[in-house]
Amino acid sequence: MKNLVVLSGAGISKESGIPTFRDNDGLWKSYRFEEVASPIAWRQNPKLVLDFYNFRRKIVVESKPNKAHNLLKELEKTFNVQIITQNVDDLHERAGSKKIHHLHGEIRKARSTNNESFVKNIEGSELNLGDLCPKGSQLRPHIVWFGESVPNIPKAIEIVSTADIFLVIGTGLQVYPAAGLIDYINPEAQKYLIDPSESFNLRDFTHIKDSAVSGMENFFEKIQDTRNKIQD
User: Fold this and answer.
1) Would residue 69 show up in a list of annotated catalytic residues for this protein?
2) What's the pTM?
3) What does the domain layout of the chain look like in residue ranges?
4) 19-62+107-143 architecture in CATH?
5) Of 92, 104, 142, 207, which is the active-site residue?
6) Does residue 25 have a pLDDT over 90?
7) DSSP alpha helices (H): ranges in the chain?
């Protein structure tokens, strides 16, 4: 079974109604990233940080996977699909995909401020001051904030290097170190990029200039022959 490795970003979730970080409107337009999504922000105003993530989490809880998520799940029938995602939502999981690696954390989980290994699911959509781990430490969003390291990058590099087919969907490859993962693709792998932008010029990539859902339908058809050969 061939290895299909997917790098997904905010564009795939946006079509489920989840705004990108920069699209958040209303109150959050008046704040800089450093004020709501960084270790400094947490030290200075933890309630503001929790309010911001509660706002975003509620949107995630109320959203549903779209056809792009579902087609990735469908491809598991004939490929060993591994998804590396920059997204903090759980839409890939809810679509039924089995092998998902979150680079930037998971918004529906919390972790201890004193013990990073203690991670738990958040019941409902809110995490508040006074919500503690069993040892009495305040819980924080299980998110990689600006200025923090990305612990899952080494594992992601390992996965990328195994790809027979590599798909980028929903990300403009502007955020590092995630964007640097394309440097580890096997030169012999088939490489695809789904993005509506005209500006991409990635060497050896087949650029499907479309939104995530329409582009994923296109991609699904493009590799149909490969799928049929594998099934034969």
Assistant:
1) no
2) 0.92
3) 1-17+65-104+150-232, 19-62+107-143
4) 2-Layer Sandwich (3.30)
5) 104
6) no
7) 10-14, 33-36, 39-44, 46-62, 67-74, 91-95, 153-160, 212-222, 224-231
